[in-house]
Amino acid sequence: MSFDLSRFAINQITTPTWSMPEAIDGYARQGVRGIAVWRHFMEAYGVANTRRHLREAGLFVPSLCTSEWLNVSVNASLQAAIDTNKRLLDAAAEIGAGCLMMVVGGMPPDSKDIAGQRARVREALFALLPHARQVGVKLGLEPLHPMYAGDRSVLNSIKVANDLCDELGDGAGLVPDVYHCWWDPVFEAELRRAGPDRILSFHYCDWLANTRNLRDRGMPGDGVVDIPRIRGWLDDIGYTGPFELEIFSELDWWQRPPEETVRVAIERCGPYVQPLGAR
């Protein structure tokens, strides 16, 4: 079956054994139209080389992943992390990414004050906002599942992320991920509250009923997430932006040949990435 993949991107972490040029060529070869770039692959290849290769392949870039984490020691300045994120915003602008994914980090090593850390994250986002607006790249707020609060992100609720977007204004937006939000009773309500313009990109994958570790996501259709229903919500609010497949899978998909992963990704995601009104 043939699918319209004009809105579909694969997040590069889904095929981590491919280098930057291998991922660009590998996705394009099978008809995928977008790639969410991961910074360490981009930095290894070079920002200018990445930009050139993306343009030659005709791939759009919904996001650059990820920001510098902000969980530095409470006694240390946030300024170094903020400066790194400004450079990443510059790189995102150069490669044509729509947003920089703000994975903000979990708890600092010398703190148990999660409320205080969330306040520091808010402070850092406001410090980055003028530069984001200047270069035309939005701060993509992705709420992560609460199990990641200790190490990876203290931004753990789509409602809190939406509230932050209210404060930050037009320089920020949401990047919801079904893996992190499917369980939340207010997921649908917060998507509707955000509306189509605030959602910068939308992540697909699946939650395995028997999750084995924190890097054990499923391909859509393998778990318990009702993806057709969620796509219906997005249609209802008129969302016309990109969809990304993002899979962390140490025990399964990361062990397979990347070409197979891309092929299955197209088969599984194809029905849920069609243009509005074409499904």
TrEMBL record:
Domain Xylose isomerase-like TIM barrel intervals: 30-263
| Entry keyword annotation includes Isomerase | yes
Per the database entry, which stretches of residues form a coiled coil? none
Domain of life where this protein originates: Bacteria
Q: Does the keyword Phosphoprotein apply?
A: no
Q: Which UniProt keywords apply?
A: Isomerase
| UniProt xrefs under InterPro entries | IolE/XylAMocC-like, Xyl_isomerase-like_sf, Xyl_isomerase-like_TIM-brl
Q: Any stretches that span the bilayer, and where are they?
A: none
Single GO molecular-function term?
A: isomerase activity
Name recorded for this polypeptide: Sugar phosphate isomerase/epimerase family protein
